[in-house]
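Subject: design request, 105 residues
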């Protein structure tokens, strides 16, 4: 469902990917089957403006204690809905920043 011009932004400033990079990343991650993460939506906010749907989810991920935020912007059309932007980032409390820094080393 990703639009050909979509962008994906991750938790690192260098994670600014186009569609081909997204597909490569996802296909590589799909090969790894030893770790299974379960995503549970804790909170969802949906806004619709004309043909765009803006969704913000706060997620619990079973493999970490840090909650994550996922933002998607979807463009609705008669040819099918397409995600035009996705952003995934950690929601970290200030007192947890040292733990998170260790996690990414």
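Subject: RE: design request

Done. Sequence follows.
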């Amino acid at each position: 469902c990703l639009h050909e011009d979509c962008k994906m932004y991750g938790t690192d400033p260098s994670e600014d990917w186009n569609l081909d990079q997204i597909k490569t990343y996802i296909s590589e991650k799909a090969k790894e089957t030893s770790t299974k993460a379960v995503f549970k939506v804790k909170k969802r906010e949906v806004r619709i403006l004309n043909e765009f749907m803006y969704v913000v989810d706060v997620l619990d991920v079973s493999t970490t204690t840090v909650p994550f935020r996922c933002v998607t912007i979807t463009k609705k059309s008669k040819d099918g809905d397409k995600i035009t932007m996705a952003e995934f980032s950690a929601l970290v409390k200030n007192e947890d920043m040292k733990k998170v820094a260790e996690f990414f080393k």
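The chain has a mean pLDDT of 80.
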